[in-house]
Design a protein that fits this description.
Blueprint (H helix, E strand, L loop, with lengths): L5 H19 L1 H5 L8 E9 L4 E7 L3 H18 L8 H20 L3 H10 L1 H11 L4 H29 L6 H6 L4 H18 L8 H8 L2 H26 L1 H27 L4 H21 L3 H32 L15 H14 L6 H16 L1 H27 L15 H19 L2 H17 L5 E5 L6 E5 L14
Helix pairs in contact: 1-3, 1-4, 3-4, 3-11, 3-14, 3-18, 4-5, 4-6, 4-11, 5-7, 6-7, 7-9, 7-10, 9-11, 9-12, 10-11, 10-13, 11-13, 11-14, 12-13, 12-17, 13-14, 13-16, 13-17, 14-15, 14-16, 14-18, 14-19, 15-17, 15-18, 16-17, 16-18
């Protein structure tokens, strides 16, 4: 017998996620945008040998992602209030565990701690899909788990290599200041790529995503789209660019090509979908292509646009998946053909769905326009041809989203579904309206968000070009001291473990 009733479990999850949001929100005002240094840091010894620390901190790159995470999670709880009717206690527990691991990824400053959070999120996400998902949930859950686990194994190898070449430290900031032989950078970059590209997901490692989205419950789809996909892009920005600048430049043409393929391919696949969830899933592949494109043009506008687009995609695509979940509760179908003509019986729902769709296609005045514009500006300075081809993704996005809106909003309602098509209740409005407000706030006044990330992005770009030092563990005092090295020669490890 459970000691917590289903109703109590729902309220505990809602109160806990709202409490996290209340604790995190003041960071927005307390954050100093004039520095690129880590802020709100914690540093406690965890394991003595090898030296592993419970080390946390925020900068202008991780701050918006953390705030987006803690802001999305209460909405996931509200969206699941009536949708999840079996094993409610377990579902809400998994949602809370997911929040812990996702925030941990964005704030970890020790590589082992980062890896623990990175891997720990697989278990609750696997259970959310495999236990509370659709008819093919086990296939989708196992596919998600195996794809992401395979890449993560190579990530662990890369972390261990950096530990030995970087002076016997797992400190992410110290390793980011080091320099490594070009040949070593290449292999580490490929190992990072295996983990991060699957998580984004980049073409051609995207095939787990549509299955996972379709079979996951609404909250699972929102978590996947809004937060989990950003972790791969965050990994590229936090680790690949500053730690492996030579390899990042060498692989830039490949990354740009893969990103553009994802933009066009994802959009074309979305055009062919009859399932609303699959349409949005493939649109995610396309929109995340803009994120990786902005990251690897390696300039200020591109990277700032990519970070902004990570937040924008989380808001907009999360809203679209919430809309699909709301209509699925009424018609028990995700097919476009079964959900048509909603403007008359559900005017509030239809209005919000149109707003999310217009934001997703990058309408000026909405959040996505700002992010995609900056990415294309950054890409233009790298290659005009790449910019022209990537711009086709915006045209295709308008095509599949407006076509979807035309059918879902302005068609003729299915007669046997008409009695079920009641408009939004207060709980559903509370789930969607905050995202709509963020769409227009960022779209009309993005400067507060841009100013907070500017110094951190500038520091990341500078770290790719300045002369670096290799951190090495001091043999007696246990502190990190710099050792100048030549980037083409193997590093000499001094000292040993602390």
């Amino acid at each position: 017998m459970s000691f917590v009733t289903e109703s109590t479990a729902r309220w505990i999850a809602l109160v806990a996620t709202l409490a996290d949001l209340c604790v995190a929100l003041p960071l927005w005002w307390l954050f100093d945008p004039q520095t690129s240094q880590m802020q709100f840091t914690e540093h406690v010894a965890w394991i003595t040998s090898p030296p592993i620390y419970y080390s946390l901190g925020l900068d202008g790159i991780s701050l918006p992602l953390v705030l987006m995470t803690v802001g999305i999670m209460p909405l996931c709880v509200l969206a699941s209030w009536n949708a999840v009717t079996t094993r409610v206690q377990g579902f809400m527990a998994m949602v809370l565990v997911m929040e812990t691991t996702m925030v941990g990824v964005f704030v970890a400053l020790d590589f082992v701690l980062f890896y623990v959070f990175w891997e720990a999120m697989l278990i609750p996400m696997y259970l959310l899909i495999g236990v509370w998902g659709g008819a093919n949930r086990l296939y989708a859950a196992i596919k998600f788990f195996l794809y992401t686990l395979a890449g993560s194994m190579l990530l662990l190898v890369a972390i261990l290599v950096l530990y030995y070449y970087g002076g016997h430290t797992f400190d992410i900031l110290a390793l980011s200041q080091g320099t490594y032989p070009a040949s070593l950078q290449t292999w580490i970059f490929l190992a990072f790529f295996a983990a991060f590209a699957v998580k984004v997901p980049m073409f051609p490692f995207h095939t787990w995503l549509p299955d996972a989205h379709v079979e996951a419950p609404t909250a699972g789809s929102v978590i996947l789209a809004s937060i989990l996909l950003k972790m791969g892009a965050y990994g590229f920005l936090r680790f690949s660019l500053p730690m492996l600048p030579d390899a990042s430049r060498m692989f830039t043409p490949v990354m740009v090509v893969l990103s553009i393929i994802a933009i066009i391919y994802g959009a074309y696949m979305a055009l062919a979908q009859v399932d609303l969830k699959k349409l949005i899933a493939y649109s995610s592949v396309s929109h995340m292509g803009f994120v990786t494109l902005g990251l690897f043009v390696l300039n200020q506008q591109g990277i700032e646009g990519a970070v902004l687009q990570m937040v924008n995609h989380g808001i907009t695509t999360g809203g679209l998946f919430l809309c699909v979940g709301i209509i699925y509760e009424r018609t028990h179908s995700r097919l476009i053909a079964d959900n048509v003509g909603l403007a008359s019986p559900m005017p509030q729902y239809a209005t919000l769905l149109v707003i999310f769709a217009l934001s997703s296609l990058g309408l000026p005045g909405t959040n996505s326009f700002v992010g995609e514009f900056l990415v294309l500006v950054g890409t233009f300075s790298w290659s005009k041809i790449a910019t022209a081809v990537a711009s086709l993704g915006i045209i295709l996005a308008a095509t599949y989203l407006l076509w979807m809106v035309q059918r879902v909003v302005f068609g003729v309602p299915t007669p046997h579904h008409l009695p079920k098509l009641r408009d939004l209740n207060p709980r559903e409005l509370a789930t969607l309206v905050p995202l709509v407000l963020l769409i227009f706030w960022i779209g009309l006044y993005p400067n507060p968000l841009m100013s907070r990330m500017h110094q951190s992005v500038t520091n990341t770009i500078a770290s790719m070009s300045r002369e670096k030092v290799a951190p090495t563990a001091h043999p007696s005092a246990g502190v990190i001291t710099p050792l100048l090295v030549d980037s083409e020669e193997p590093l000499e490890i001094q000292g040993g473990s602390r």
